[in-house]
Design goal:
The protein is an alpha+beta fold and 266 residues long. It has a domain of 86 residues. The strands form three sheets. A three-stranded mixed β-sheet has the order 5-6-7. It binds iron/sulfur cluster (SF4). The site of iron/sulfur cluster has 13 residues, from helix 2.
Length: 266
């Protein structure tokens, strides 16, 4: 049933075990929200640029990167978009605006990030066995550079606050996968582009031992799968509401009296 553990899977388990159960055990996939589609689009623009840059050594013209991002956005929304209850009336306008935001983010990437990336591997799927885990860790890196840096692109409505990197298990897992697969001590960073086009470069210090708490969490995930007991999100967690959780309306942990449609904004 669970034949590998990825950063996104483990991250969801840590936020809410019930949501993990619905997504990965019950196979109830929720479509991404508009912001996630914008992020996918920016990644597509970067991916197309990085792939050709391995050979050419040069970045694509801006218009090519933006075209790839626009296509990436159209493909992302074609498979369906999660619109929170109560926000349906503005959905068409927000979807259209999302395309413009995706193209703007691609431009910010091309200006602020692309020139500093000499890629040697792009969207590479990495897997590694880990002592204490019966299934491998698995991840797909955005890009690996010739200096062994592994920047991870993120799009965000606003700048990341201090300490946000600590909430991600991704750098530790990617660092471990790169050590196991390529024998390198990669330097990890998040490269955040905000919807206003600002670029935030956030280095993340990772050491080999940082994988140990990740393994413990992964063991907890497998134990929950074995027991069939999945806890709801921590009370008051930002994710646990109709705006951010697509499972809210059918969640057995939310009392019926709390399942009230939000009032429409004027
Ligand atoms: S509504 Fe809350 S408890 Fe239920 S799946 Fe979503 S985040 Fe988890």
């Amino acid at each position: 049933m669970i034949d590998h553990i990825s950063p996104s899977m483990l991250g969801l388990f840590c936020r809410c075990q019930e949501a993990f159960y619905r997504r990965y055990i019950n196979d109830e996939k929720m479509p991404p929200g508009i912001s996630a589609c914008i992020g996918t689009a920016m990644h597509k623009g970067a991916e197309v640029n990085h792939l050709q840059k391995i050979e050419s050594g040069s970045d694509l013209p801006l218009s090519d990167i933006q075209d790839a991002a626009r296509d990436g956005y159209e493909n992302a929304i074609a498979d369906g978009v999660f619109i929170p209850a109560g926000e349906e009336s503005g959905a068409a306008k927000n979807l259209a605006a999302g395309a413009d935001t995706a193209v703007a983010l691609a431009a910010a990437y091309a200006k602020s990030i692309a020139p500093h990336i000499p890629p040697v591997a792009v969207e590479e799927k990495l897997q590694a066995e880990v002592p204490g885990l019966p299934v491998p860790l698995l991840g797909i890196i955005d890009v690996l550079c010739s200096d062994n840096s592994c920047p991870d692109l993120k799009s965000s409505v606003r700048k990341w606050p201090a300490g946000k990197v600590e909430s991600s298990l991704q750098p530790q897992i990617y660092h471990h996968l790169l050590a196991e697969n390529r024998g390198i001590n990669a330097s990890m960073s998040f490269e955040v582009i905000t919807h206003k086009g600002e670029h935030q470069s956030i280095p993340v210090k990772v050491q080999a031992e940082d994988i140990l708490p990740v393994i413990t969490r992964a063991q907890g995930l497998l134990q929950a799968v074995k027991s069939g007991v999945f806890l709801p999100a921590e009370p008051g967690h930002w994710m646990c509401g109709p705006k951010w959780c697509g499972y809210f309306w059918s969640c057995p942990h939310i009392p019926q009296h709390k399942k009230i449609l939000p009032k429409k904004s004027a």
